Automatic annotation (TrEMBL):
Protein's name in the database: ArsR family transcriptional regulator
Domain of life: Bacteria
InterPro entries registered for this protein in UniProt: ArsR-like_HTH, WH-like_DNA-bd_sf, WH_DNA-bd_sf
Xref: Gene3D superfamilies: Winged helix-like DNA-binding domain superfamily/Winged helix DNA-binding domain
Keywords, comma-separated and alphabetical: DNA-binding
Amino acid sequence: MSYDVKIDVSPIYDLLGSFMVYVTKKWIRDIDLGSEWIRDIDNQLSPGVRSAILEASSWPFDDFDVLYAWASCRHADGSVRDFLNHLENASEDEMWNEIHELLPTMTLIDTRRIQTSYAPLLKLWYEHYFHHIEDEILELITEDAKEKKGLLDKMDPSALIEYASGGLVVDPFPELNTVILFPTVHNRPINTYCFYEGVLLIQYPVDVPEQDEEHPPNVLLRMTRALSDPERLRMLRYIGGEPRSLQDMAHYLLQPQESLMHHLMMLRVAGLLRIHLGRGDIERFSIRQDGASELQLFLESYIRI
C-alpha cells in the first residue's frame, strides 16, 4: 500500500520551529544556528519579553505536535498573522475540531491549555523576532518547495522524501495515507517528523547560501566532524550490512543508548545515515551511500582539486 506526498509551504512552520529551538534549546549544538544564535536573541529581546517567552521551556514538548497540526490545517493562503489571530480568537471547540481527525485522543482541556498558553507567546515571538526575517524566510522556502513540487510526478514518493530530507526513508504501511513535507530554515540540517492518524508531517531543512567562500562549507564540516570519532566509524561499519535499530547497536557496541543517540545525531546531520520509519514510529538506521560521494564532492570542490 502506498501513500500520497504533498509539499506544504508556509513561514508559519518556521515561526513554530524557531520558537521551539529558542525555548527548548533542543538540538542547539547540532543545528547550524548554534548557541551563538540563542545569545543574539537573548540580547535582542527585552528582559520582560524574554522572561515571558521562556515560560514555555517547562511545558510538555509534545505540545509542538499540536501546534504543527494546527499549522497544517490552516487556510492554504493564510499568513502568519492570520494564523496567530485565529489561534488567539477561535473557540476551543473550533480548534479541537480542526485537528480531531489527526489527534483523536486530544481532549478539550488540552486544547484549551495549549491554545491559551501559546497564543500570546507566539505573538510576542513574531513581533519581536520573526516578522523581521519573515520575507527572507518565505523567499528561501518558496524557492526550495518549487523544486520539490516539480519532482512530485517524476520520483517515487519514498525517493522524494529521502532526497528532500537527506536520508529519511518512509516505508509504506496500511495506516499511512499521506506524507506532508514542509521546508524550514531554522532547524537546518535536522529533519523532524510528527506522526498523526493517517498522516506523517515531515520538516526538512533548506540550506542557506554560504556567506564566506574561503570558509569550509557547513556541510563539509558536519561530515568531517562526524567521521573524526572512532566510535562513529564503528557504528557505520556495523550498520553497513543491513538496517539496525538503536537497541541492536547498543547490544553489539556495548554502549548505553543515551551515548549512541548523540553519535547518531552527529551522523544524521552529516547526511551519512538513512533513517527508516515504519509502523509504530520505530526507527532503524542504515548507511546513506550518497553521503560518501557527497563528502568527496564537497572536499574536492573546497580544496580545488
